[in-house]
């Protein structure tokens, strides 16, 4: 009877040992796409309804110095979108939403009390990178809005060397 608990313990340790490398691979941040790494200009789209968050974002971008602000979406290398899932798109009577539905379903993934920071391709509107940060209305909680993006840049730089 004593051998069975030892067999189970050894089996459990073996399973944990074999799955650890898989978990580490998924836990490691993915390198940023070259489109982001080579971009120099961003256009900000604030979908949160809080101008304070956009103001905070502009200050952080200015201090970081990594990107310049583009005057229009067409002149930007990237779109930097702030979204908290609380905005409403007005659709005229008798019409239905058009375009990709992911624009409507992406907002469902944003946890309450958070803001999503996304980088989009300005031509295709394809999502290139995103992160969420804890916010309370127009106030940033715990750190800075761009901490996740700066960390992703650092990880990508380390991966290249």
Write a brief caption for the model.
38% of the residues lie in helices and 20% in strands. The protein has 161 residues and is α/β, with parallel strands linked by helices.
Q: How would you sum up this structure, described in words?
A:
With 161 residues, the protein is α/β, with parallel strands linked by helices. It has one domain. It has a 6-stranded mixed beta sheet, with helices on one face.
Number of strands: 6
Proportion of β residues?
15-25%
Cα Rg: 21 Å
What count of domains describes the coordinates? Answer: 1
Helix content: 25-40%
- Could you say which structural class the secondary elements and strand pairing correspond to? alpha/beta
Give the ordered list of helices and strands: HHEHEEHEEEH
Average pLDDT, rounded to a whole number, is 81
Low-confidence regions: 99-108
State the helix count. Answer: 5
The strands making up the biggest β-sheet line up spatially as: 2-1-3-4-5-6
Distance between the termini: 54 Å
Assembly state (oligomeric): single chain
- Overall shape: extended
Largest sheet: 6 strands, mixed
Structure keywords:
alpha/beta, 161 residues, six-stranded mixed β-sheet, 6 strands, 38% helix
Topology, pairings included?
Layout: H1 3-27, H2 34-37, E1 41-46, H3 51-64, E2 68-69, E3 78-83, H4 102-105, E4 114-120, E5 127-136, E6 139-140, H5 147-160
Parallel strand pairs: 1-2, 1-3
Antiparallel strand pairs: 3-4, 4-5, 5-6
């Amino acid at each position: 009877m004593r051998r069975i608990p030892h067999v189970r313990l050894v089996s459990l340790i073996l399973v944990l040992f074999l799955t650890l490398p898989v978990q580490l691979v998924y836990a490691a941040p993915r390198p940023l796409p070259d489109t982001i790494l080579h971009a120099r200009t961003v256009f900000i789209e604030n979908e949160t309804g809080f101008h304070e968050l956009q103001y905070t974002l502009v200050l952080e971008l200015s201090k970081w110095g990594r990107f310049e602000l583009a005057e229009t979406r067409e002149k930007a290398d990237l779109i930097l979108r702030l979204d908290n899932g609380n905005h409403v798109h007005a659709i005229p009577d008798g019409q239905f939403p058009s375009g990709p539905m992911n624009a409507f379903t992406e907002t469902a993934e944003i946890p309450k009390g958070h803001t999503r920071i996304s980088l989009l391709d300005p031509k295709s509107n394809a999502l290139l990178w995103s992160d969420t940060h804890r916010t309370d209305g127009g106030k940033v909680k715990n750190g800075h809005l761009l901490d996740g993006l700066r960390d992703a840049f650092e990880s990508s730089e380390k991966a290249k060397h």
